[in-house]
Amino acid sequence: MKEQPHIGELIKAQLREQGLTNDWLARQLSCNIRTVAKIFHKQTIDTQQLMRISKALNFDFFKIYSDNFNSR
Asked: ∠ CA(13), CA(57), CA(40), 5° rounding?
């Protein structure tokens, strides 16, 4: 089985790819910038929080997990 993705790093990479800032994401999630920094360090994440981040960034992070599951 493939190694699980580090979701925090993937979220950070997607944010950067879109040219957005940590402050922007904090505003979208109604949290502070420290919380965003903590998200970037998470190996795993709550599904509700991941859904909010996916919607904010208009990117399906769940697909990363399903692709990982389907490649077994």
From this structure: 40
Which domains, and CATH codes, for the chain? 7-70 (1.10.260.40)
What's the token pair of residue 58?
């208009």
Please report, for residues 9, 17, 26, 44, 60, the alpha-carbon distance to residue 34 in angstroms, rounded to integers and kept in the order given.
15, 20, 9, 17, 23
Is residue 1 predicted with pLDDT exceeding 70?
Answer: no
Q: How far apart are CA 3 and CA 38, in angstroms?
A: 21
For residue 71, what pLDDT is reported?
Answer: 66
Q: What percent of the chain has pLDDT over 90?
A: 81
The mean predicted confidence, pLDDT, of the chain is 93
